[in-house]
Amino acid sequence: MLGGLMQADDSMIDLEFDLDRGVGTRANLGLIVLQTDETIEPEFRQLTAVDGVALYHSRIPSGAEVTPETLSGMQDDIARSVSLLPAAVEFDVIGYGCTSAASVIGESAVEALVQSVRPTAKVTNPITATKAALSKLGAQRVAFVSPYIAEVSSSLRNTLTEGGFDIVSAGTFNESSDSVVARMTEASILAAIIKLGQQLPCDAVFVSCTNLRVANVIEQAEAKLDVPVISSNQAMAWHMLRLAGINDSAQGVGKLFSEY
């Protein structure tokens, strides 16, 4: 060392290199993750595990308590969160990972905010993706499971109703803390799905919230109810892949992923 700087090494060999498209040889997906979300990233790794598909995450500030006010407050940070995704990557699809906030802010408003930074990317969110998934499955009568307080859950329910779906039964864990939601057991979630799915005849069960650990119990619930079970993470992962032109089927993640 000389004056705190490393001396040049005359023996260092210049190496040649070639360039390719990077990891996403088939598709590049961007995911905006809530600061408080502990579940969407591990579930998305499972749900988008397709050769040639790259998944990049950015975080967005979010309140520890889930209320209409904290949800709508994220609107101001969506564009900045998108701008923190790798600049050199050309994204096929960007997903905003909050079911409730997409309903409160508005699906078209979320899309506009994302495309203000990435104008060529297709955009989705869990509620838009769920509507697409239910339509693809031909599901009209829906049982609805939510973890959140009544005011937030009602907004989601109304969004689905306005989208043309019939909510035949609905239930909520009535919880406002996102950290509590992330720690609800898979057994509790499975029991809730079965309870709501059996209450009245339905074509599908929708389990809202990206922070609920649903992916590992979807097939058990479908086997018990004999109808598709849709979760926020599963629907958005499926929709992002399909919007990117990736039509691969997948095992162990529900009937939705067998649909093209």
UniProtKB/TrEMBL annotation:
Q: Which domain of life is it from?
A: Bacteria
**Protein name as catalogued:** Asp/Glu racemase
Which Pfam families does the record match to this protein?
Amdase
Q: Which InterPro entries match?
A: Iso_Racemase_Enz_sf, MaiA/AMDase
Species the sequence originates in? Leucothrix pacifica
Recite the lineage of the species. Bacteria, Pseudomonadati, Pseudomonadota, Gammaproteobacteria, Thiotrichales
